[in-house]
Amino acid sequence: MAQLIALPVELKQLILRSCDTPTYLQLAFSCWNLLLIASHTRVLVIHHLNETPGGPEDFDSISTTGLFRLLLQRSYRELYGAEHYFERKLVNLQGKVMNSRACSLRSRGEPGRALLSFQNDESVYLVKMDNRDLTLQQRIKLPAISTGTAEVLFAAEDTSDHNGVHILHIVKPLIDEEPYNGHPFVQQARKANSNGTVYLAFYPHALSGVGMSICSFREQIDYEPIAFATCRDVFAISWHHRQHPEDYQVVLYTVPLWADPKVEHGDGDWDEPKEANLVEPCQDDTSPLIGKPAILLHFKKAHPLYGSFQKLHDISRPRIDGQGLFSSPNGQPRLHDNACHVAFSDELALEFAIDIPFFSTHQAGDRSSGEPCHWQYLSIGIATHRVENWTVACLLKSESFPSAFRCDHQPNLDRGRRFDQWQIVARMDGYRESTTSNGPLIATSRLGTRIVVATWKTIYIWPVEPHALVNGDPNEFYPASWSSTEDMLVLRPVVIEMDAVCSQVDFTDNEDEMVALTDRGLMLLDFRPDGKGGLVTENWNDILNRSH
What we know:
By secondary structure, the chain is an alpha+beta fold.
């Protein structure tokens, strides 16, 4: 640094011009001498403004100081230097061990809500994360079981009219220290129940007006649940046979189980699910997720996007088969692959798996003239070249023109899932396939300005201006230097190296605040420009005490 400062001003200006904008700003704020040159050399500031996304401006009418301030504003939006100033808050669990599979960071309603579960703890904790803080909103205790121990398997929040929390758990009987030498039939029955019984409990939020309900799955005694999803009065469970590893089942339960609040808390009078559908006997490990428009999404292990989907309204009224399972009389609903051919270049089309859109715009039509509405959607797509075996992640755009009479004029991102005509608007530079069992983890912010991909201990964040990508020409917002030789816009990520392995990631209500479930515990990450960097810790017991 001393050698750089000792150079003539002209050479320092040349160096500051030749480096990229993040490095230019980092050098500028490393010492007062370089800051004066970087912020007061007008041609230098304008050069880096032209290299930073933000669109055209009337630079002639703005002072040099104002231009440098504008450059800083744009750099904050692009997260330049965030790897140096981002702040982390780690929740110190104080001896507790996180039950990662049972935790849920993906809330269907308010962003920044999470359900936390710990090993050897028969409670689930609903927490809210916002503005660099974490608060406990509700502690949910499983029914008291005197004949065994309960273990939380999965937890999910339902923000429909019922508005509550589903907890899938297993109750394992207490093991007698002395062996039972009685009747063989009794021995066989005791052994059959040693794996435990799976229950699903629904706990309404305080003001919902619905009582706690619970049901059991005794017909699946030989199976264990490996995935769970719920939406409104429908839920799905992926079952895996305990003795036959190749035997998987995804069962959809379609009856409103929570309409009757008469079941008393923990009295052993369990309700049984009255209707269910055997959706698909799977040949591989898959996880279900129920979308809003009655869609069942199937995820394969280590794959970031869903691999197939089924329309739930294709399932007619079920019937009981010879094995006691409920099945559709017209056969299983059709399984649709998440695969769409999209032009990657003039000579190449790739088969993309496309996620549910994370952003949409709406232009209302005119009923009197018959002009239709115009919807535009932005989504993430991932494709792998079948021969060369390279993988690419892109942002894709689609659109629809519904009649102004039929359009409800309300955003519905799930609607974009059924489109088959997509156009690539940008490539996500730096995307890498993960070789770990978790696979890449993908999350988007509420307003669609941030995309994050977490792979093991590395987090990639792509700043995005979604309006520029779906409306008009992206080159009006993004510099020409951001386009590849194929004239494709290339978005550059900010790379964050973590000291913990991520198993779940999501955004809070703030575009620059994330939450990550890691092997060290729950972690808040804040990328706002006023951050000072570093790690702070907060004890879990302090969070519990603060809620009382």
